[in-house]
Design brief:
It is a single chain. The protein is mainly alpha-helical. The protein folds into two domains: about 30 residues, no CATH class; about 70 residues, Rossmann fold (3-Layer(aba) Sandwich). The protein is built from three helices and two strands; from the N terminus they run αββαα.
Length: about 100
Amino acid sequence: MHDEDLSAHNLGVPIVMLGEHALDVEIDRIAIDNVLAARTAVTHLLELGRRIPCIGHNRRSGIAALRLRGYRDALGAAGLPVVVDLVARESTVCGSD
């Protein structure tokens, strides 16, 4: 979103932003808890007996870092180590075996 996109906000038009990217503007925003979402998904897959060999991870993305934290939290809670070779780097492809 750019400054010109916010001109409607200055005119009093209601705006709700979707997603995690924050701006220095007071606008209502809807976003998910990325740590909890990843932890919940990984926990579910582990309960199904699945091993999670890769997750989408981009070192430049704050969102991906939060999801990686949730992934690690779920493995730790299950008493499983994080195997570095199973964490895809610079990937947007996610999956399980």
